[in-house]
Specification:
Helix content: 55-70%
CATH architecture of the largest domain: Orthogonal Bundle
Bound molecules: arginine
CATH class of the largest domain: Mainly Alpha
CATH topology of the largest domain: MetI-like fold
Largest sheet: 5 strands, mixed
Number of domains: 3
Strand order of the largest sheet: 5-1-6-15-7
Oligomer: single chain
Shape: elongated
Radius of gyration: 28 Å
Length: about 475
């Protein structure tokens, strides 16, 4: 028996060593906001386009394996600056403001900001922009330019969302970079461009100031690609590819062409997979965050009640109060961003885990107060009776008080779980592709807000109804045990 065990151990160790011995290529992390065709966009569940292609090519020449992370545009520079990512490749315009935070490579393309309007619009020249509602993607040079020179723009999370708003007459014009504008025009016949551009710009890749060495090596390869004509080839390839893309069905109003719209939003290019995969992420994050929240919440509630009842554990009680104040006093999105960018800033952890930790810690604070409420609702006499029967404080807590507290708290707890499930919909802030984000990706490809949002809402609703039923069953079970 011992011998067998010993050999097994040896075998496992050998496997481990063989596994470790395999030389893995070092990783190069690139961040982008993949809503910007032909530079970066999601197609067939992958991030494609000019930027990923160039960076992948250079990474492989430098001996790296490329990892691409999709996030909101206004976060890409911060990601590189904080060391969370090595390079930002996102159709980034070189500006003096940005140069203060990161270094730019040599530029690889020239661009300009242009104005998209509906064909039917009275806006003909830049002069007509006065007093119009202008849509932009938040954090872009278009945003800065409009804010500085024309008016306060309406800021959207992505270019395609701004265009969708234009199509629905929520804004009068959209200011965006010329190449993406061309792609949007190809897909929507009801749009046109103003002749004059607003700005002249250059795109480059951004690398952290601490990473001079990478900058030098990267520039060298980029230079080579430019001189050999390879760069021009890649750019042309993606421009051509995107100018062929079939026009998206015209806007037929809410109910018009529902079947067409259904096919476009869910069937074409297997878009339903964005919802399916997103749903799975949402379920994983919610489930484990609930568990974590219960553990933290019970712990905190027990310490707080014990401190109240016995006058001991002053220090622990102080920290519990601090935790409750901070967590309940700040928005969960901010907590999520702090945990991702600051606490896990320099380490590479799976975003699902980051989300579980963030939502778990957040939920724990609410669970704690719910459970404490439950504990307080139990008559003092019960504890006294238990103690006089010879049970210790902790024994009475465990055997007598907590089970009852849990039962009284169950409806409120159920409420908290439902809130948590829906709160995970802000995961997109750290570019986690949850259910909501899945819907967002579809919307950015089809410019259709109606069906994707409806589908996302229906899925959340279904899960909440199911959860409600489960909690109801649990409550009935506990009643029967009385
Ligand atoms: N060129 C503009 C800028 O640097 C817009 C870039 C938007 N890029 C994107 N991947 N969405 O601000």
């Amino acid at each position: 028996m011992m011998k067998r065990f010993f050999f097994l151990l040896l075998f496992a160790a050998a496997l481990c060593i063989a596994g470790c011995g395999k030389q893995e290529k070092p990783k190069l992390v690139m961040v982008t906001n993949a809503t910007f065709p032909p530079y970066e966009y999601v197609a067939n569940q992958r991030i494609e386009g000019i930027d990923p292609h160039i960076v992948r090519e250079i990474a492989s020449r430098l001996g790296y394996e490329l990892v691409i992370q999709d996030m909101s545009f206004d976060a890409v520079i911060a990601a590189v600056q904080s060391g969370k990512a090595d390079i930002a490749a996102s159709g980034l315009t070189v500006t003096d403001e940005r140069k203060k935070q990161i270094n730019f490579t040599i530029p690889y393309v020239v661009a300009e900001q242009v104005v998209i309007v509906k064909k039917s619009s009275p806006v003909r020249t830049l002069k007509d922009l006065k007093g119009k509602r202008i849509g932009v993607q938040h954090g872009t040079t278009g945003d800065t330019f409009v804010a500085k020179n024309i008016c306060e723009p309406e800021r959207f999370s992505t270019g395609p969302v701004a265009v969708a708003a234009l199509l629905k007459d929520k804004v009068d014009v959209v200011v965006i970079d010329n190449e993406p504008a061309q792609v949007f025009l190809k897909q929507r016949r009801e749009l046109r461009l103003l002749k004059e551009p607003l700005t002249a710009e250059e795109y480059a890749f951004a690398i952290g100031k601490h990473n001079k060495e990478l900058l030098g090596r990267f520039n060298k390869e980029l230079e080579k690609m430019r001189n050999s004509g390879e760069l021009a080839g890649i750019i042309k390839h993606y421009k051509d590819l995107n100018s062929q893309s079939s026009p998206v069905a015209a806007d037929n109003g809410y109910w018009g062409g529902i079947k067409e719209s259904f096919k476009l939003n869910f069937v074409k290019d297997k878009r339903y997979l964005y919802l399916l995969n997103g749903f799975w992420v949402t379920v994983k994050v919610s489930f484990f965050a609930v568990l974590l929240g219960i553990v933290i919440g019970f712990g905190t509630a027990i310490i707080r009640s014990a401190a109240d009842q016995t006058g001991k554990f002053k220090l622990a009680d102080f920290f519990c109060r601090l935790y409750l104040t901070v967590i309940r006093g700040t928005p969960v999105v901010v907590q999520l961003l702090i945990i991702y960018f600051v606490i896990f800033g320099a380490v590479d952890v799976d975003k699902v885990i980051v989300a579980i930790i963030a939502f778990g810690i957040n939920s724990g604070a609410y669970v704690a107060e719910i459970i404490r409420g439950g504990i307080m609702s139990i008559d003092k006499g019960q504890m006294e009776a238990a103690r006089s029967l010879g049970l210790s404080y902790w024994q009475s807590m465990r055997e007598i008080i907590l089970p009852q507290a849990f039962k009284t708290a169950l409806p409120s707890l159920g409420n908290e779980f439902i809130v948590l499930l829906k709160e995970t919909s802000v995961s997109g802030y750290i570019a986690l592709q949850d259910l909501t984000k899945g819907g967002d990706i579809i919307r950015s490809q089809t410019y259709d807000a109606f069906l994707p949002l409806l589908a996302v809402a229906a899925i959340y609703l279904a899960v909440v109804v199911l959860l409600g039923k489960l909690l109801e069953c649990l409550e009935k079970r506990l009643k029967r045990n009385e």
